[in-house]
Design a protein that fits this description.
Largest sheet: 8 strands, parallel
Helix content: under 10%
Strand order of the largest sheet: 1-4-8-12-15-18-21-24
Radius of gyration: 15 Å
Distance between the termini: 39 Å
Order of helices and strands: EEEEEEEEEEEEEEEEEEEEEEEHEE
Number of helices: 1
Strand content: 35-45%
Shape: globular
Length: 191
């Protein structure tokens, strides 16, 4: 656990495993790698490798500001969400080879980050990278690359600048065009 405004720099956070069944606390099944208390003034992880962690939600990181981190090979279990990150801003990160539903769930900001082509959901197919559900979520995306998968779930509004999306949008054509046509500047969208 990392307290607000603390900095974890240059570490490899690997092999962490949250409890897979709750023992009564709210946070004992989350964040196998690193858990902070809040964002945006929460803990910071810089220049870290966050890999091979397991949890029900947010296996790699949860509620932590991630800067220049490699977030690889993390896994959620029991139909959980966010094998890479849950409710984390990402800046200058590389995210790939994570396994479970919705690689990055509720990211608060994505900047200069690459999502590699090998993130998979629980059923082995390409996974949605950015997800907002249970209400409308707006996500700023700047100077980032998304190599494969689905984007959003129809309730997620992506405000992107200078980014490349080689992905499909999860939703109907009107949702797709509304999100990308009105909210993107200098972006390339292919699939």
């Amino acid at each position: 656990w990392a307290r607000a405004r603390s900095v974890v720099r240059g570490f490899t956070l690997t092999g962490g495993r949250a409890m897979l069944a709750s023992s009564g606390g709210n946070n004992d099944t989350v964040a196998g790698g690193i858990f902070g208390w809040s964002t945006p003034d929460g803990a910071i992880a810089e220049d870290c490798i966050i890999s091979n962690n397991c949890a029900k939600n947010g296996a790699g990181a949860m509620y932590v500001n991630l800067r220049r981190c490699r977030i690889i090979e993390n896994r959620v279990v029991d139909a959980g969400y966010g094998p890479a990150v849950h409710t984390c801003p990402l800046t200058g990160c590389f995210v790939d080879r994570n396994y479970g539903n919705d690689t990055a769930i509720y990211p608060t900001r994505i900047e200069s980050t690459t999502f590699g082509p090998n993130n998979y959901n629980t059923y082995g197919s390409a996974v949605r990278f950015i997800v907002g559900y249970g209400g409308t979520v707006s996500i700023p995306v700047l100077n980032s690359v998304f190599c494969r998968g689905y984007l959003g779930d129809g309730q997620c509004y992506i405000y992107a600048t200078n980014s490349v999306f080689n992905a499909e949008f999860f939703g109907d054509a009107s949702t797709y065009s509304r999100v990308f046509a009105t909210n993107c500047c200098n972006c390339v969208v292919t699939n």
